Amino acid sequence: MPAYTVQDISQRIEELPTLPAIAHRISYLLEDETVDYRKIAALIEQDPPLAVKILRIANSPLHMTLSKVHTIEHALAILGANELRSILSALAVYDFFQQQEGNGFDRKGFWRHAIVCSQIAKYLAHHFRCQDDAIFLSGLIHDIGKIVFDAYFRDDFKQILNLVATQHQSFSTAEKAVLGVTHYQVAAKLLRQWDFPPPGHPPRTISPRPLA
Known about the structure:
The protein is mainly α. The chain has one domain (6-193): Hypothetical protein af1432 (Orthogonal Bundle). The protein contains twelve helices and no strands. The N and C termini lie far apart (62 Å). The relative contact order is 0.17. Residues 202-212 have low confidence and may be disordered.
């Protein structure tokens, strides 16, 4: 029998702290369609590691820029408001869970995989002319529930990894056997709690200056 009910795990997730203040401040600014992107750039530049990650994503080959992106302002113009919000939220989640003791799970490899998935999702969305930026976010955080298990249900997650490795079970099958829920269900709960943009959120660009 699974060691936990869905309610047990949901309650544990509800105990998690909120996202860092900078993510909330920027998300708040992005709600204003007339916001000057220089204000947002100034906030990001207060966090050099975050600025480096934003520049790295903006310089991805999938964005097909004509020249290398060197400034945060240029990066914001390329990424757009919705993609920026998704990136900031996902990076905040990553930074938060990096502070938690792990279980031997390869988190760096996990996030490399997440970034690749997000870029492929963005490419496919562009190819099929789909304007929903939630597709990019979905690629970036589709497996975030695994990190929750690794951080807060370590012994159970070790059993799950063992079942996947030795009995060649899928993650979902092993998770249901050990915990009674899948990482997809946990991720959905967490993302609702942290106010990630839902599918269908209309895409926006960032205006270089307040609109008249």
